[in-house]
Amino acid sequence: MNQIFHITQSTVWEEAKSTGIYLGDTLESEGFIHCSTRSQVVKVANRLFKNQHNLKLLCIIPSKVKPEIRYEALEGEEVFPHIYGALNIDAVSEIIDFKPGEDGSFILPANI
After folding, report:
1. pLDDT tens string 22-33
2. Is residue 108 part of a domain?
3. How far apart are the first and last CA of the chain?
4. Which residues of the chain, if any, have pLDDT below 50?
5. Closest by alpha carbon to 28, among 101, 106, 85?
6. Whose CA is closest to 4, among 42, 36, 32, 33?
7. Predicted pLDDT at 14
8. What's the structural domain count of the chain?
9. The domain that contains 44 carries what CATH number?
10. For residue range 70-86, what is the model confidence (pLDDT) as tens digits?
């Protein structure tokens, strides 16, 4: 898999840049950072982030991620990538402003 994706708040990403690592909110509560494949990004965004602004879509190169990545199914759903540990920000190849449309829903950015 060439890329995985993670949606985060802009303020959280700015903080990560200052420390060199990204600690997703699910890392502490669930033990991993939840990511998505290209085909899952819009589904996840519309289910969890509809109408939210100030989001970033992190494009991550799996081969550069230092902690373990596990591809796991969540409660009968398709397999999602999970990063078990803090994400080293040098594994992030691109950061895209991820904005909903006028109806509050997301579409896949053309540049990914």
Report:
1. 998 888 888 899
2. no
3. 14
4. none
5. 85
6. 36
7. 92
8. 1
9. 3.20.170.20
10. 999 867 778 999 999 99
